[in-house]
User: Which sequence fits this backbone?
């Protein structure tokens, strides 16, 4: 923790030595110990460890806390959209707000224990007059996306012959070094995303830093005992594939922590609500009914279960986030076109969000045959069915379905004014009574959203049909029998 008293910020080594900083354990403390001390204090005080990370309290967070308390290098294994990068970036909270370093040092040297040759020479020449500065914790966290073109010089560094020649140095002189990411992360955290994309010969460059705590530059006897924690992220499929990660590196990674998608609806709803925030004018004008939010989350759950979707790629939590954002935008567009005071998101707006859904999953062969857009429609229908059956019994709203069986039909546009839609819905017997049971609100836009949900629920359960050309209508008797006999597996629903 920070010093008890707050002196003027020291600007030289002498001032630092005479200040309260010299009396604290901050100087000379290893990064692992620093993280452990601050994390232990947070846990004991009951503070949020990873604020904004939902659904991991009983799974990922305890494992990650254990790894950090043990001072381990670790890897987060998970499919896309499982908050791996966010978890890594939140580790900066466990570092001190600022620490003193030798001013201008590329590797953030401790003024009392410098590593690099330049700092040692400067302190030897200037002594107590050596300039120091305070490094904020955000600059002690470095992140690198692993790509096949990363070189050992990028990662570790290299001996710079031009620098050596310019200053008349031997290549074995430490002042001839060009530092890479590992030494620049000295006294901090280095996170490497998508670790399997590093070439095997580059992975070897991590060995010494992880086990012996130092790095070496080519064949010259220049060593640098760096102090850092290495954190990685990877897709489980790539991490376990032969040849992607070399065995000695896996052996040096001391903890493998598996992330996962939200495991229940309430957590998924909370995550999406956190990411899709309406502010200012939009909050007062836009309303997203709970049942629409549930449908959005059920789309992601259905996609993760669907046999036509590639399980190895996963279905990111970005799918419901993007779908809901686009649905809100479509409702706003309708509101602006019709100059209405309130925009209420309805199920039809989710069909307008198909472009935000189709790019969020990879397809198996059968899915490619079906097509991404058609599969997305299947998923929306499956999601509506799940939410509808949570609110209505399967046999409910038969009188609404009978109106269509007697020859009624209804085609709506997603830009139609709410009052006009209500007039058309009023023709359908008992539709308003069914919609009012959903309690979405008394406004015209809210009642339209409720009526549309009832109709979509009847369509999803096979009681009525809907086509792009003709809208809602009766199900042909032969097709009705087929739907009644069909299994309820979402993969079997055909639009």
Assistant:
């Amino acid at each position: 923790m920070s010093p008890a008293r707050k002196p003027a910020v020291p600007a030289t080594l002498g001032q630092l030595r005479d200040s309260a900083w010299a009396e604290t354990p901050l100087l000379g403390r290893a990064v692992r110990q620093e993280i452990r001390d601050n994390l232990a204090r947070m846990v004991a005080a009951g503070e949020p460890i990873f604020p904004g990370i939902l659904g991991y309290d009983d799974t990922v967070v305890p494992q990650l806390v254990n790894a950090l308390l043990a001072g381990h290098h670790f890897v987060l294994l998970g499919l896309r959209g499982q908050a791996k990068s966010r978890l890594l970036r939140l580790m900066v909270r466990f570092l001190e707000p600022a620490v003193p370093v030798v001013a201008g040092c590329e590797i953030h040297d401790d003024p009392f224990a410098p590593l690099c040759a330049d700092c040692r020479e400067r302190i030897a020449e200037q002594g107590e007059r050596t300039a120091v500065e305070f490094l904020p914790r955000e600059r002690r966290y470095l992140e690198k996306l692993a790509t096949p073109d990363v070189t050992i010089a990028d990662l570790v560094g290299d001996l710079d012959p031009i620098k050596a020649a310019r200053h008349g140095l031997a290549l074995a002189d430490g002042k001839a070094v060009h530092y890479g990411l590992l030494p620049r992360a000295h006294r901090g955290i280095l996170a490497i995303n998508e670790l399997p994309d590093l070439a095997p010969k580059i992975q070897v460059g991590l060995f010494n830093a992880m086990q012996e705590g130092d790095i070496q530059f080519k064949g010259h006897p220049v060593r640098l005992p760096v102090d850092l924690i290495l954190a990685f992220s990877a897709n489980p499929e790539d991490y376990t594939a032969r040849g992607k990660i070399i065995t000695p590196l896996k052996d040096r990674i001391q903890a493998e922590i598996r992330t996962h998608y939200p495991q229940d609806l309430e957590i998924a709803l909370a995550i999406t609500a956190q990411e899709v925030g309406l502010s200012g004018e939009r909050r007062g004008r836009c309303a997203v009914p709970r049942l629409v939010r549930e449908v959005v989350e059920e789309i992601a759950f259905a996609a993760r279960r669907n046999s036509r979707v590639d399980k190895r790629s996963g279905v990111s939590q970005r799918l419901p986030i993007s779908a809901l954002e686009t649905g809100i935008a479509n409702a706003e567009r309708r509101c602006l076109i019709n100059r209405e005071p309130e925009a209420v998101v309805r199920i039809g707006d989710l069909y307008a969000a198909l472009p935000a859904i189709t790019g969020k999953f990879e397809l198996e062969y059968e899915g490619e045959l079906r097509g991404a857009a058609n599969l997305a429609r299947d998923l929306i229908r499956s999601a509506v069915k799940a939410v509808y059956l949570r609110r209505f019994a399967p046999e409910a709203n038969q009188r609404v379905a009978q109106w269509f069986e007697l020859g009624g039909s209804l085609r709506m546009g997603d830009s139609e004014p709410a009052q006009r839609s209500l007039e058309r819905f009023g023709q359908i017997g008992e539709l308003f009574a069914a919609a009012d049971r959903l309690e979405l609100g008394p406004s015209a836009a809210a009642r339209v959203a409720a009526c549309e949900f009832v109709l979509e629920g009847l369509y999803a359960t096979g009681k009525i049909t809907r086509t792009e050309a003709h809208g809602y209508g009766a199900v042909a008797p032969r097709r009705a029998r087929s739907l009644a006999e069909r299994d309820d597996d979402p993969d079997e629903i055909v639009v």
